[in-house]
Amino acid sequence: MGRYIFRRALLAVPTLVGLTIVTFFVSHLLPADMVLVNLGDQAVRSPELVAAFKHRWGLDRPLLVQYLVYAGNLLRGNLGTSIATHRPVLAELALSLPATMELATAAMAGAVAAGVVLGVLAAVLRDSKVDVFARGLSAVGVAIPTFWFAILLLALVYFQLGWAPPPGRLSAGLAPPEPITGMYLVDSLLRGQVDVLVDALRHIVLPAIVIAMVCLGYVTRITRASMIETLAEDYVRTASAKGLTAWAVIVRHALRNSLIPVITIGGTLYAQVMSGTVMAETIYSWPGIGRYAFTSAGSMDFPAVMGVALVVGAVYVAVDLCVDVLVVWANPRVRYR
Amino acid sequence: MRWTSRAWPVGVVVAVALSVIGDPGPRATGGARTDVLVIAKDISDIRSPDPAKAYEVSSAFLLYPLYSRLIRQEAPDYGKIRSDLAESWTVSPDAKTYTFTLRKGAAFAGGKPVTSEDVRFSLLRMKYSKGPGGFLADPIQSVEAVDPATVRVTLSGPDATFLAALAAQGFSILDSKTIREQGGVDTVGADTLDKAESWFFAHSAGSGPYTLGRFTRESEIVYQRNDQYFGPTPFFRQVIVRHVKDASARGLLLRRGDVDVALDLGVDQATGLRGASRIDLVEGPSAFTVYIGLNTGVPPWNNPKVRAAAKYAIDYDGIVSAIMRGHGLRIGSIMMPGMLGFPGSLNTALLYPHDAAKASALMKEAGVTRASVAFTWPSGAYYATLPVDRLAQKLRADLSLIGIDLQLQPVQESVFLPYFRAGKPQTILAYWFPDFLDPDNWTILVNGLINRRFHWQSPEALKVVTEAKATADAQRREALYEQYNRMLAAPDAPYIFLVQPANVIAARDDLANVRYHSLYSLEIDALRRK
User: Fold this and answer.
1) Chain A CB contacts of B451 below 8 Å
2) ipTM score of complex
């Protein structure tokens, strides 16, 4: 298993290298003018300022050389400097990635827990009211536009009912915990700041529900379909026939075997959510990686865009690996070679 | 100044949502929040809190309370240049030498007195840092600290606009000793040698009414009152700016009492909040002036008669009443009404009436019955309260009545700019937002920056504005800019001036002195609770 993981991790290297090549050259094909967008209409009139800008960011060199310089820095763990803020991209990602990771994890945890329970119930009580509800909810969850649901939930739960705090990661004026992981929930816990922890928890609920809603639909459907298939298997009938309780049959025998497609789809969803959900992050003022990518792309901040692409790529690779390991846990018949 | 905005049609959605679920009514303001002010604003366009590198609309807002500048302009009379750190000044008759006498007793937040050396350092650091606003310092040839309270700026050529330019965010006066310690450089090469920028993300070094407590990109700005401030002591001990990207969400936060002020509302939110209990709407002229640019290199705009016809074909009042719902006014030239050489009376005099018959007659004279031409604008944008997409639709409808068929081509903003700059668009819905409030900042429609893109020149107008720039005498300048504005309003000029949108601020009704500032958004230090 250790060797397998190592081999898979090695495979990630060519993937990421390919990713940098594609992102780098594609982003330079865009019809937008990086110098103009960053310097502004007035400053580009001064050839001196333009030359200084180009030299500063290496734009006066051939594209291939630019890439090689970039790749060389990357090997030394340097993701470059953001053109917009002049700060290291790595430092900026260290702010936005944990924000998204926290939100994505909370959302996925909720979606998987609710989706699996709902999916199992729907499968066991097929065509009952529970099943109709589960199917309806998953259809709505998948179909509902995120920005619409986000604003509706905010208007209802925050504005109308007053049950949730306003957008943001913390209440106004509350200082974030001294960063360890950058995730406020984790850091406040580690630092023992209970007030910050509670506040951060209250703030994460609504955006997490918005993101979870989309994932919930997929998880419920897959669980239901997979459970229905498994429940028809001979070994399930055998288990029931030998007098096991319904609970034991469903949870210990059927569910574990049904989980494989759920894990696969859950992994893909998690990676997707980890690459940022711009709409939810926008409406809930969540300074995550989706916002960062969006802002950076809009201002032609190439080093930042490249950094995001790399991180997202790495997340996909890591999640894929986790999925493979989890699948073996769920179904030991699958073996590594 | 640089300004970006991307908006989603969420305003409509929330309006629908709210009408369905109803209004919960007024909420109590957050109890103990007497000397703490909370503001909701979209601050996502801030790139750097270093004055030498900042050039965004929101960074001007961020820097305004942290730093003092030599001079200031207050809303609503921007024509008047007031004392800030400079107590008085003299301008040489050739508008090349500016001598400032600094105010006595002004100190930085740490207690250090503000001296001419700090001014010299700040101006030159700005110049040599070559940031996006650095061109504003191009005219500076040298800065001399004559004595601790006197500073002399010599320009490389006559420039009567320089005094007003000193109110721009880039000319914020920094504590030179502190910034030097952080790696600040004020000589040639500062663009690569200066290492102080990252320090500004967590600190400030100014003599303004507030100091920076905390700045988190796309999250929050926290200001603390500067007790050493030389001006009137600000009412609020602490000011917190919450980043709320979405304008309708800003409205919700205000109505629930979670914030005291919601800035930069769109027309839908302004309408939604009108009459809401315990909320005041405050309106001020934004610095956006919106116009249509006509490319004179392509038909039908190469025909001056068609350009004139289009000016009579637009239902301007309909734009103000239906699309802007009264939050703004019509303009007859490019400048903000009220600028030197463009008083409100002249603005009114230069407006074109909506006269369909005259427009059709002009089209007939031109010999054009039908024409099809592309129409480009940055999609999804809001210019202050004005939703640009809706304006584009309206213009298409208006011009189709005289046989001009605008083909709508909305494009993403970062693509729009280079396309515009290359002079490719045939018809464009454009705006100007000034870097500082001097009429010279609006001469871009003849000085080569913008007019070149429409393949149009006016040597006479260029002569007028060039002379105005080098004229120190205010009366003479005024007459020249008046002439410039009249020339721009000529029937054959390739610009159709539309509107100056208002900026709408909504605030809890227990706040006094809420004023929109066209450059800094809000004069935070003037706010107080009733």
Assistant:
1) none
2) 0.86
